[in-house]
Design a protein that fits this description.
By secondary structure, the chain is of the alpha+beta class. The protein has three domains: 2-110, 2-Layer Sandwich (Translation, Eukaryotic Peptide Chain Release Factor Subunit 1, Chain A), CATH 3.30.960; 117-228, Nucleotidyltransferase, domain 5, CATH 3.30.420.60; 248-359, 60s Ribosomal Protein L30, Chain: A. Helix content is 38%, strand content 24%. The chain has helices at residues 7-10, 30-47, 52-63, 107-112, 165-191, 202-208, 214-217, 234-266, 274-283, 313-318, 329-339, and strands spanning 16-22, 73-79, 82-89, 97-101, 118-125, 128-135, 138-144, 195-199, 220-223, 271-273, 287-292, 299-302, 309-310, 325-328, 343-346, 357-361. It contains eleven helices and 16 strands.
Amino acid sequence: MQFERFRTLAESKGPYASVYFDDSHNTEDAAAQRELRWRAVRDDLEEQAAPAELIEALQPAVLDAPPAVGRSGRGLIVGADGVLLNEHLIRPIEIPVVRVSSLPYLVPVVEHGDQHSTYVIVAVDHAGADIALHRDRSVVSDTVDGGGYPVHKADSAETPGYGDPQRRSTEAGRKNLRAVAERLATLVDEASPEVVFVVGEVQSRSDLAPMLDERVADRVVELDVGARHSGFADADLRHAVDQEFLRRRLATIEHAAEQFSQAIGQGSGLATQGLHGVCAALRAGAVETLIIGDIGDATVVAGDDLLTLAPNEKLLSELGTAPAQTLRADEALPLAAVRTGAALVRTDERIDPDDGIAAVLRYALA
């Protein structure tokens, strides 16, 4: 998960309220359930002495958001500057998480959030396409009509050759698909989506593929959920998109685990683990990927600057910095990684690093 996604959080001011909860909308009383969840969240925030302005900013973000499709989760972080993160989560949160802290809590969104915040969904047929650009929780829709007609072959036999209706239909379909391909090329250049999901019946998808520029084709993932005008369920489409994001997330975890294990095995110095090693790498700006496991309730200390951090006061003092703040490690380390341009990965059973934290490094530390 790339650091750009959390740059606003890294540059914002606290205190923060970080809230993660099940926001599923798959029952008749879903609206009432959302209200009950908000009351529970609000009570928890008040018990933690959250500032009133944080609670006031959270309430409309929770209650007025468009309902999710099927089973879903939500992640919200608010600070002094208002709502800083408001994301759909691929998986519902079984146990709600509510924190009031001097730092935002990112781990659940690293684990369950949409890894790619910008993507395109294209519903295509030989008459054109409906295109939706998803970016920063907003959707911009467009329809492409290449002007090619007719696109349906005649049922009765007519004289082949010049004026052949089948030939005219084929050429009209190609003209429309070329217009779709040109629009997608422009969209990729302007918005740089991570993924271009293509929906439609098989022949339409197959005929579009060779017309796509390489930079578009490299981002295409075809989804077999239905045809453009015959209709498909939003829940099926959302599930297919989420499954692709999940597949990519698992591939990212696998890659980070392989890098870490190889570096540790070879003794190359290009990986470290445990609070001591990771804090040192973050202070040096050497972390390429922070691998987050089960950190538990561990804490670190820091000076006035978050990047002057250490696992304990003694070590920080030895580095010439007076301890100014004690922070939860699962909040401080991810945010420090974001501030140094590192990627964040939530690990699974592939690796079990010391203290629940590890890092792949840009260069070996002396």
